[in-house]
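Below is how a single chain appears once it has passed through the pipeline. First comes the sequence as given, then the structure the pipeline wrote out for it. We keep one example in the README because the format questions we get most often are answered faster by looking than by reading.
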Amino acid sequence: MATTKTATLTFRVDPGVKDALKAAAQMEHRSIANMVEILIRNHCERNGIAIQESRVSEK
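Resulting structure:
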């Protein structure tokens, strides 16, 4: 089965921002981590920033 490598990202935000993120994620039936990834991907797409996709490894 192929697996995609992921990286860990830890950061601090204002509690109100976290609450808004949680609400947005729930509205779209996403995890908070997935919501952050989608927001970043959308921002990069709108601003012409390329995202280098990670390699898939076979297990």
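The chain has one domain: 2-58.

See the next section for the split statistics.
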